[in-house]
Amino acid sequence: MSDNALIRHDRLSVDGTHKIYLAQFGNPEGVPILYLHGGPGAGCYLEELKLFDLNRYRVLLLDQRGCGHSLPQGCLQDNNLTALLEDIEKVRQWLNIDSWYMAGGSFGATLGLIYSGLYPQRVKSQVYWGAFIPSKDAVQWLYGQQGAALEFPNEYRRFSQGIGVQASTVELFQLYHQGMHHQDPSVKQHFIHRWIKWEARLALPDRFLRFVDEQRAEDLAKTELHFALNDYFDAERLLAKVTPKIKAPTYLLQGENDWVCPYKFVKSYQHRFSNTQIKYHLVLGGNHSLDNQAMCHAVQQTLEDFVYRPS
């Protein structure tokens, strides 16, 4: 990572296998805010610092297990929902922060919502965008044949090549698992690229995808598939259990053109769990990516209005 506004960076040993990477940016005395990246497996990028006023914030960029600068790179052993949640709490304890603010997108929002319900006294306020609600319907929308596939039929045809027209998502996941772990590097790379291209088409519908880092693409694809194959380690049930316990003011921003995590699944979540601490906002013109100007501006404004509190 760049040294621009860098306070320090560390690798924290969280078990006998994993060392997670934590980089701190901005003002050492500023408002501590933990940034939770998506994927799972995407890792953090310096570009995401644009969301924060580094004169005010002490921004904590955490690479989750097996991705980004965490070690071992691409490791799926003991890489699951419970472990990721425990890692977040270990980071808080290591930093000796009594309570903090949180922000993140996509699967990072899933993690943050669950964490704030498990540890309600530790979260002051939180802002999430493009939230992934890990329901069966949301997974079917993303990877099945009757959801986003109907909006992007040509792209889905390429993504699902090799399975029958009546195949289930489980069969699709099994196909990709075989491909991503194939002994032939060219076959492995082919399946990794197909996986990433499908999701990128939904997240960035107006942009051309370039693979600038093959290792990070592999980490992302394999980790996402690992969680999908394991039904996100029962994340839906846990989210349902802890949502009523969330005490922190919580803001969920969803783009009207988010094809990865459509707003309808967030609305369904809202109807099931009417926690008055959770506020919802549809971002007109927004999609799933912070590269979208409308989405980025909405997140920046929400962070400014609802997270930072002058003393």
From TrEMBL:
GO BP terms, alphabetized: proteolysis
- Which residues, by range, are in coiled-coil regions? none
Highest taxon in the source lineage:
Bacteria
Active site: which residues? 106 (nucleophile), 258, 288 (proton donor)
Give the main localization category. Answer: cytoplasm
Query: What does the record give as the reaction this protein catalyses?
Result: Release of N-terminal proline from a peptide
Give residue ranges for domain AB hydrolase-1. 32-288
**Cited InterPro entries:** AB_hydrolase_1 (IPR000073), AB_hydrolase_fold (IPR029058), Peptidase_S33 (IPR002410), Pro_iminopeptidase (IPR005944)
GO MF term list: aminopeptidase activity
- Record-stated family: Belongs to the peptidase S33 family.
This protein's name: Proline iminopeptidase
Source species of the chain: Shewanella gelidii
